[in-house]
Amino acid sequence: MNSMIKVARYHLAQPAMLLWVPWAPVAGTFAFSAIRQGAVSSGGLVILFVMFFVAGWQRAGRWLPLGLALGATRRSFYAGTALLGVSIALVDGLVIAGLQSVERATGGWGLSITFFRVPEMLNGPWYDTWLTSFVGLSALFAYGMWFGIVNRRWGVLGLIAFIAAQFLAGLVYALTGRPGNLTGLGALGLTGVAAALTVVFLAGGHATIRRAAV
User: Fold this and answer.
1) Domains in the chain: boundaries
2) Quick one: pLDDT at residue 112?
3) 73-96 per-residue burial string, b: 16 or more CB within 10 A, e: under 16
């Protein structure tokens, strides 16, 4: 546990990409929505989730050599990076839930804006919004970590093969007609699916990092 915390602190030596950069485009999109009085709605919040994927990729792939040079093992580096990502996701989920509550109480910031209320997903009680946001952000961070590690271990060709394999798997799944079953799960049901995927992503990344090149 101590080594995991040290790795997390090591990442926070340059905290911008993890703490501030993901929110910068969200703030800009929200400001545009306010100026246009709701012209851009909750889709702008998706940017935060995409940025978590990018952050996971960068931290796991680009920072691995320096982490090992500072004395961390591959496993401790991976666990510490995942711990930090999940912790930030927990806090950011609370921020989203809080902003959503303010938005709802003020009638959309007085402008009927529904920026932090995503229909069918982030539009329930604050604790539902927090849980869904937390799990979604954690899943994308873990997914990004796996991508970064694959790129580090096998290079661009390996990454292309990794993406192609997932695309083919998704295509086969789509042809079975099963994706339609997900629509009836509701927000909490989809949150459960995202939580299961997070475990898969973390396990996949953990297995891949063992022989990742530095």
Assistant:
1) 2-211
2) 79
3) ebebbbbbbbbbbbebbeebbbeb
